[in-house]
Structure formats: C-alpha cells, structure tokens
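Could you help me review a protein record that somebody else here produced? What it holds is a sequence and that sequence's fold in token form. I need someone to confirm that the token line plausibly describes how this chain folds. Take the sequence as given and treat only the tokens as open to question. This is what I was given:
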Amino acid sequence: MTANPLATEAQRRIEDRAMALLQRPDMQRARAMVTLLWQNVAAWPSRDQADRFANMIDEYMFHHAFRAANGDANHPEVARFMAPPHRWFGRDVPGSRWGGDSPDFIYRTIPIAHGGRYEIRGKPTCDEAPTVNYSLMADNTASPVTQTLLDSLNMDFASDGSFAITVDDTPADGRRNHIQTKPGADFIMVRDALGDWLGQSSNALTVTRLDPAGDPKSADDMARHCARIALDNVYYTYYCTRSGAGQAPNAIRPPMSSAAFGGMATQAGTKGNLVLEEGDALIVRSNAAGALFRNVTLTDAFHMSIEYWKRTSSFNMRQMAPDEDGNFTFVIAHRDPGIHNWLDTGGLRRCIFGQRWQAFQRDGQNDEPWMHARQVKFDRLEHELPDGVQRIDSLGRHEQIMARETGFARRFAEG
C-alpha cells in the first residue's frame, strides 16, 4: 500500500473547519433544535438505547457540518466523511455516521454546481482497486435524489489504472468517464467499496474546477448551510431509521432497488427490524446473485453501525464464508454460535438488519437476489442450521477480529 490516500491536507483542513463551525453560537442553537426534534420522535421508542443518543446527535451534527465545510462548489475538494470517531494527527475527530452507514465503504464528498466545469483525477493505491460509485446528488430537502450514477465497472482506465472524470452540464456523447450535471446538483458522493480491508484501499482523488468563479464561502455562509441541511434532514434520517425499525419484528423484506430511498439505483437491498431476546437467534440465508460486492450489516436503533472495527457486526463478500451449496448462512445472536458468519449484536436487543448487492457482473444472466430469515432458539441452533455451514473455533474468531481491527486502523494511518 502507498501512503494513505485519505490522509490529505484538504481532509484535515475540512475537519478543522467543520469542528470550528460547531462551536459557533448559531450552530449550538441549531444543535438544540435538532436534539429536540429527535427527542420528540425517538425518546420513547429508543429508550432501551438511550445511552447511544448523545453520540448519535454528535455524529449527526458533525456529518452536516462536514458537508457544509466542504460545500463550496467554486473551490471544491475531496474529503472523507461517514466515519466513526477517531484520533489522528493529534486531534480527536468526531464521528459522522448517518443513515445506515456501511462498514465497507469509504465515503467521500465533492461539492458540485450545475453550470460549472470540473475534472476529477484518480489513481489506484493498491493492487486490486475497489469498485467505486460516483453519485451526483441533488440538494433536496425532502430526501436525497441521485441525479446521475457513474459506476467504475463502466469506466475507461489508463494502463496504470489512473483515470479522469469530466463533470459539466453537457451530454456524455460517448464519453464513458463523464457526469452530466442537472439543476439542483449539490455534490458527488463517492463510495469506494472495500472487500479486502487488509489489501485494498480507496483511490487517490483530486478535483479541479476548470472555470473558477467567486470568492471562497465565508464561515457565516457555511454555518447557514449546515443549519439548513441539519434541520431539514432530521425528517429523512428518521424515515431511514423507521424504514428498518418500523417493520414487523424479525421479518426481513424482499430485496428491492435502493433508488426510491435516495440510494444507488444499481443496488439491491433489504432491511429488517430485529428484536432478539437472550435465548433467541435468527438464521438468515441468501445468495450472491452475481454481485461483485455484497455486505450484511447490523445497526443500532438510530441506524448507526455497531462497533464493526472490534466485532463481527458486518460481513462483506470477502469476509463471509459460503455454505457447501454456494449460498450463505448467517446467525444473528447475542452469543457466539461457533459459525463463521456470526453477526454480533453487541448486546443490543433491537437492531436494524441490512444487506446490499451491487456491482452486478456484466457478462451473463444473474440470479435475482433472495433472502430468507427464520427465528429459532439459540439452544436449538445445531438442529436448525442447514448442512454445510462453515464453523469457526475460538482461535479463528480471535484472528477474524484482529484482521478487522488491523484493516480498520489502516484507514486512519497518518503516513
């Protein structure tokens, strides 16, 4: 691996800018309003996870402060967000997880304005570059709208893996690496999907506005931007949470496209509301469906990932083990069932379950994604599990967790 492509000067500058925004009196008032709005709808239904509420508000506010701090389309930069709290370069950086974050994605944002002309340049930083989606997002107060999606599987690359993406308001006209902006365009969400946490890293990216115009945004403008999107997005974020937690317990809905929910149109996904007592377990089975990237995740009552860096609360297609028949069995439980694909609840009685299938193979006909779930008693697992499920012993589990911790730490390497 080369130097960490995320440890850029721009990243640190935007982090500092976002942290400074949140110290302003006007942003403290916005935080108080956001907190009240959340308490009004979440205090009672999420009372069993009240100890996680304050951190959720911290990360929710930093998420939106970060977007505002890197929200100047005249002077765009590339910066990572949607990460847990961490310490690097001598600073404690708040988390910015939001709306069902994926443990396997490196999320980055690039501000864009319709009518502007931009060039994004990238190069790989590992032997096997991850699949990447570039989603042009509209600034919509009701829910995020994906205006255009560019998938790395459809892009052209130079012999060394480098690439350039043009962004402007003209049609592609045969340009495979082009994003056409539309009115309301606000930013590009970049998602590098890491299947191998130890061997893969995100692409190194830079962005240039080719027709620069205007002075940099003032801190007052950024604060107004932050307050607006933080207040507006309470409603959509709550919807995202309830889209999982509002279902009948332990019944996972069939996979469907994520487009209607502001997600990627080329992604199939499913959610479930899990309510498991100490003696319960949920057996979940699914297929690969020709997707080059897949993952299953557990999130808490506020739809935030559950300490995936130190427990198996998620699995991607490289981390999960197939059954002998080629399909996949997962056991969701509070205790280790001794199978490879144990989704650890972290002791939370209620969780939101999610699975996504994306980057479908372009050659041939893929099977439709499917998933089935069945609640059983933990003590009956040996009688209920299908044949051919891969087991794991205590040493194997320890190595599994150590690999997760090491892979996660690489994302915050300062070199």
Notes: Residues 243-410 form a domain with the Jelly Rolls fold (CATH 2.60.120.1600). The mean pLDDT is 94.
